[in-house]
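Checklist before submission:
- one chain only
- standard amino acids only
- sequence pasted in full

Submission:
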Amino acid sequence: MTAERFKADPTSSNMAGVTLMNNQVGYVVAQVMAGKPGVTVTDLPSMIRVDGVGKFEFDYAEIAEALGWDDFGNDDFEEIMSTHYGRMVVLDDRIVMFANPEDAAEYISFDLTPVS
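Returned file contents:
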């Protein structure tokens, strides 16, 4: 299983994800995300991986409610996130993760016009 998990594969995985700190806040965020379709949460000794297929969102209001906080925002998320892969679109009320840049085109001014 380990060799399969870490093998090199140049094809698109259709995945996006983040690495969170394995602390109290990171744990709660990961638990909120674990219930979402297409999202896999992997607990590791010093970090938590949150990986999703295609597109998924971290909804700040949902996370704040789970934490018992009045609010949760970009600064709180940045504090617990160490890295990500895929396209991350940061909005005022949520973070949207996209596996493919074309899917995020409307948010990131990605020009989909064919070049001739």
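Reviewer check: The two ends are 45 Å apart (CA to CA).
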